[in-house]
Amino acid sequence: MELKNDTLLKALLRQPVDRTPVWIMRQAGRYLPEYLKTRAEAGSFMNLCQSPELACEVTLQPLRRYDLDAAIIFSDILTIPDAMGLKLFFVTGEGPKFEHPIRSADDIRNLPRPQIDESLGYVMDAVALTRRELGGKVPLIGFSGSPWTLATYMIEGGSSKTFSKAKKLIYQDPQMAHMLLEKLAGTVTDYLNAQIESGAQAVQIFDTWGGALSSQAYKEFSLHYMAQIVSGLKRESEGRKVPVILFSKGCNTQLEALADTGCDALGVDWTITLDEARRRVGDRVALQGNLDPSILLAGKNVIRREVGYTLESFGQGDGHVFNLGHGITPDVDPEHLSALIGAVRELSPGYHS
Ligand code: CP3
């Protein structure tokens, strides 16, 4: 099936485009009433992830409302620890939890490297089904968490503000930390390659908690493993390049090092201007971002003005994918996202020749 809109793939590879493509992290989610309805029918978030039909349905929901340039497969980064036997569940208001978090060196030694096709086959089925249903309208993005970000949840047993258990492990017993991260890096590589083989046309690695680490620890415990994954990924499929995006939140001091991993694009958060990020990475990678998600809580005129500033900050030329600097929040009015996408459509052609 021919891809009718390849603006995203071209922009990620810094090829010429006539407008800036746009997609939104967490574009399928709780701010959409149709998502809440499907989740209620599914009974739980995990049922939604594990049913290929329902995961496909919620992946497509934002594309019915908005003129987006990509779909991102509906799933979660924590499917990997679940497949490794930690048993993921969600407590309303408290976020993700594991029945069997990592508590000892033996837990790390005994952690299996999952057979992706068996334990995560539901994700591959969702990718393949969604590709068919998209019918070439826009490309489908696959994703995974970074080894470090996955490790924080596995060691803390859920979300954390301080990451004290995970950080204690890297300082107290770096060898065990490396054993865990090595197992995760291998699994993430297999997982992303399986998504590419099932039809994902670009992939993103979410390193949401990279910013919790010191600069030195970041290089050793997060960046190193992302670089290893990038070099193990299948970079071409169906006769096209498969771009790889790294999103390390809170890591703008590391942009040069991230660009040196061999990835195609970097996701950037809102704490740096695209102008500065672009000067620092030069022509090595494309940039994706970076509107503060909270701007979507303000009025439509503010949203339009801020979209203009973001486009102006990147400036003339190719290699920019419009996105937020982190995921859209559940309190956003869906009409406000329409205003954002409309503004990108209207204002961005002026930045491309
Ligand atoms: O972008 C998309 O539309 C694809 C779907 C997607 C989800 N999670 C769905 C989801 C993606 C890409 C993720 C990634 C993810 N999951 C990350 C990295 C990105 C980021 O935002 O930093 C992280 C850290 C997770 C772990 C996770 N999953 C948490 C912390 C939570 C709870 C969030 C909360 O506010 O309660 C989840 C659950 C989750 N994943 C939801 C969605 C739509 C909400 C679950 C619900 O419907 O109640």
How would you characterize the overall build of this protein?
This protein is an alpha/beta fold and 353 residues long. The chain has a single domain (21-269), classed as TIM Barrel. Helices cover 48% and strands 13% of the residues. The chain has helices at 7-12, 33-42, 45-50, 52-65, 79-86, 105-109, 116-119, 121-134, 147-156, 164-172, 174-198, 215-232, 255-259, 274-281, 300-314, 334-347, and strands at 71-72, 88-91, 95-98, 140-145, 202-207, 236-237, 240-241, 244-248, 265-267, 286-291, 320-324. The strands form three sheets. A seven-stranded parallel beta sheet has the order 1-4-5-8-9-10-11. Helix 10 crosses helix 11 (174-198). The longest helix has 25 residues, at 174-198. The two termini are 29 Å apart. Bound molecules: coproporphyrinogen III.
Q: Which SSEs are present, and which pair or pack?
A:
Blueprint: H1 7-12, H2 33-42, H3 45-50, H4 52-65, E1 71-72, H5 79-86, E2 88-91, E3 95-98, H6 105-109, H7 116-119, H8 121-134, E4 140-145, H9 147-156, H10 164-172, H11 174-198, E5 202-207, H12 215-232, E6 236-237, E7 240-241, E8 244-248, H13 255-259, E9 265-267, H14 274-281, E10 286-291, H15 300-314, E11 320-324, H16 334-347
Parallel strand pairs: 1-4, 4-5, 5-8, 8-9, 9-10, 10-11
Antiparallel strand pairs: 2-3, 6-7
Helix pairs in contact: 2-4, 4-8, 9-10, 9-11, 10-11, 11-12, 14-15, 15-16
Bound molecules: coproporphyrinogen III.
